[in-house]
Request: fold
Amino acid sequence: MSGNVLTEQEAIRQSLKLVEKSGFCLLGTIADDGSPNIKGMYNVKHEGLKKIWFSTNTSSRRVQQLRKDDRACVYFVAAGRPGKGQSKGLMLSGTVEILQDIESRKMLWSEGARIYYPLGVMDPDYCVLCFKARTGNFYHKLQNAIFDIR
Amino acid sequence: MSGNVLTEQEAIRQSLKLVEKSGFCLLGTIADDGSPNIKGMYNVKHEGLKKIWFSTNTSSRRVQQLRKDDRACVYFVAAGRPGKGQSKGLMLSGTVEILQDIESRKMLWSEGARIYYPLGVMDPDYCVLCFKARTGNFYHKLQNAIFDIR
Reply:
């Protein structure tokens, strides 16, 4: 039945919906020794599926890793119960740019962030990660759709 | 105040608690081109923090990647609200063994899995991943504790 086939268009539509409703996502990076790393991140700002911005500590292991290898993935998930095939997952693959300019800092700043960056918006330990997606891989109901991000 | 310091012992205790209550976790692997990949997995069986077993499709990209590079991480998360510092995250780092023996198949099998492996417990497209952790990295309340898994 054609209605059951996950088209690229439908995968992109559902991916956007998943990103919109996710307050949380996972950032995948490569450690110094080439092994994979994952860290949970708040999804505070995004531009469609193209760009996702995160705030993080400049001194963090994540930032050190990204300085050496800027390749990353961002994963969004809506987990269903096992054996029902209802879980949705979206993996965006791309690269990360580390930003410390005033505009980027202000764009992501919220007063709640002061617990992480006590010196405020200009805290040298505060930086912004801009993830730029190149491809998406959306999974739902036992089907996968891989698409380019334009 | 010493009560606020996250000791290794306390990090391991809280890590075990997080794994116990998580029905879902994230598997990080390395793609052919060396970039990071993430996939959501059901947490169906584990042995403390040492071993975690997953079932997956033998034909999946994940299995192909792990045949080339067996290094992986498994991430467990309990996301709190932003700006509260309450989120908990555990990253276990280690390697994955791909198993297709009868014992491993039966150990993880449930009838609900038939939607993924229509031929049942001996379906050639059904395999078991055994993740063996070497180190743990637990995060809570702005503190990190890194520990060896013994």
Observations:
- Chain A touches chain B at residues 23-24, 26, 28-30, 34-40, 42, 44, 69, 71-73, 75, 77, 79, 82-85, 87, 89, 91, 93, 110-113, 115-116, 142 (CB under 8 Å).
- Chain A is about 20% helix and 45% strand.
- The first strand of chain A starts at residue 24 and ends at 30.
- The CA atoms of residues 33 and 96 of chain A lie 19 Å apart.
